[in-house]
Specification:
It is a single chain. This protein has about 280 residues and is an all-alpha fold. The chain folds into 2 domains: about 65-200, Tetratricopeptide repeat domain (Serine Threonine Protein Phosphatase 5, Tetratricopeptide repeat, Alpha Horseshoe), CATH 1.25.40.10; about 215-285. It is about 75% helix and about 0% strand. Helix 2 packs antiparallel against helix 3, helix 5 (about 95-115) packs antiparallel against helix 6 and helix 6 (about 120-135) runs parallel beside helix 8 (about 165-180).
């Protein structure tokens, strides 16, 4: 309840603060302090939130970011991570009502981050991340619109921060999902949405996911995504190599533990297939 009240207060203050910011900039006035250096109290809260997030205490970190936003609603450094954390936390719920509530709050945080800093890579990433998370909960039309709207944000995030592995992973997922629209999705997009989102390619998905994996080889999720695309392309040797790297990584979170188990299952399946192929060839000799 406290978090909900804080969020409602934050949204109300944001609705007031952003127009005030626009009027101040139009009149040549200085931007509010939240857009420059935060005050010492806010800086301490941001540092505490970042520490909690790095230690995987995501609910506590989100609460700290929300506390910052209740005091300084246009704080970019709190808006975009609040969006990302809301998606991560909401994704763990099986109840779609609670999941949708977290996702809606995340979308609002991401939208505000883009208003505060239109050229911020993190804000564009947060917006794309929200759209990708919300898409499966929407109608067919809403889902396709989400992937269409996601395109400029995910490309912009990698342009502005080319060394950010998370952005490359999200770009790779976008490429692969759009390039694998089924026939009904393709027809609907062409007839009702003015065409397919441009530029989607499985080869570009592999490049983006490989880039994410190279930038941060210790993140098992990147290896898992890359191996799945390799496997779906019939590139078993490359998929096996990536999975062999992945299973050596030590999972830290529950999510990483589940991903590690999936990698092991995929690797075991590939090894069984390889043994069967070898056995069949030996029988022919």
């Amino acid at each position: 309840m406290f978090r909900l009240v804080c969020s409602l207060v934050c949204w109300t203050l944001l609705a007031w603060a952003i127009p005030q910011l626009g009027r101040a900039q139009a009149g040549g006035q200085a931007a509010p302090a939240a857009l420059s250096a935060p005050d010492p109290a806010t800086a301490r809260l941001l540092a505490e939130a970042a520490r909690l997030q790095s230690e995987y205490h995501e609910s506590e970190a989100l609460a700290k970011y929300e506390q910052v936003l209740s005091k300084a609603p246009a704080t970019y450094e709190a808006l975009w991570p609040a969006a990302v954390l809301s998606i991560r936390i909401g994704s763990r719920y099986t109840d779609e009502t609670r999941k949708a509530a977290y996702f809606s709050a995340a979308r609002l945080y991401a939208n505000r981050a883009l208003v505060v800093r239109p050229d911020g890579a993190e804000g564009h990433y947060a917006e794309a991340f929200c759209l990708a998370a919300q898409a499966p909960l929407l109608t067919a039309r809403g889902r396709l619109l989400a992937y269409r709207e996601m395109r400029p944000h995910v490309f912009r995030a990698t342009e502005l921060r080319p060394e950010w592995a998370d952005a490359w992973q999200l770009l790779g997922r976008w490429h692969y999902r759009v390039d694998h629209y089924n026939i009904l999705e393709r027809i609907f997009s062409r007839v009702f949405l003015g065409g397919m989102p441009t530029g989607a390619s499985t080869f570009m998905a592999i490049d983006a996911l490989r880039k994410a994996h190279e930038l941060d080889p210790h993140r098992i999720q990147y290896a898992y995504d890359l191996a799945r695309v390799y496997l779906n392309r019939g590139q078993q040797t490359r998929a096996t190599a990536v999975l062999q790297e992945a299973v050596t990584l030590t999972p830290v979170t529950v999510d990483e533990l589940e991903t590690s188990r999936r990698c092991r299952r995929m690797l075991e399946l590939l090894n069984r297939q390889l043994r069967r192929q070898v056995h069949r060839r030996l029988k022919r000799l």
